[in-house]
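Input chain follows. Return structure tokens only.
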Amino acid sequence: MAETHVLTPDPNFIHEVKRLGGDSLKKCYQCSTCSSVCNLSSEAAPFPRRQMLSAGWGERDALVSDPRVWLCHQCNDCSTYCPRGARPGDVLAAIRAFAYRHFSFPSFMGSALSKPGALPVLILVPVLILAACIFAFAPHTPSGEFEFLQSSVIDFNLFLPHSSVDALFVIGNILIFIFAAVGFIRFW
């Protein structure tokens, strides 16, 4: 007897894939042209046809845990030859963007890193942290000005004392390794 597969569609996932750039998702009618022209597809595992079918049905859990979604390098052969203009490469890119945002830790970083408009804010945060450290730890003259502004010698210890740089480096690296480990475990 054949094995039964119960679908658990997620309509919100379909809308999210469309919003992330896979707006041609529903044009696919499973003709298998994409799998025929894709160099990464095999007879045993049709790619990207199976992923397009799962995306069309809104099988979010199946797709975010499917490592084959990450195979596509968007050569767009499948999109070029698709008779309906379904653009499987764009749909797979949207699924990857969804998975990236879904598994990232902390979750706001996944959203920020997937939007080019967030780059100025991502650059501004370390600049503000460095400025706060300078104001908090840089030595001052008796008149209240920063010593590095009054000194005629370039001394980085006057700009930011070595002990504060070491503390910031150690704390920052501990946080980075914790975030990376949690993100890696979630992706795995």
